[in-house]
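Worked example

This section walks through a single chain of length 67. The input is the sequence exactly as stored; nothing has been trimmed or padded.
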Amino acid sequence: MTDKNKIQGEGNYDAARKFDSKERAFVKKGGIEKKAKAAEEALDGPEGEELERARKAADERGHMGER
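Given that input, the structure is written out below as tokens.
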């Protein structure tokens, strides 16, 4: 592969293809409803407050560049 072929430009196309492939495999494998139910139970359970704090902290970090 030449240096020119390694240039990704605006995005990393190789990483995007790998992500898409793994995402499709995950969905095809199934069990999404089970994972969603487990997440719902975690939010409603004892760790719910901690998970919500973590979600808010991640959301704030994600929007830092947009402010």
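What to look for: The chain has a mean pLDDT of 85.
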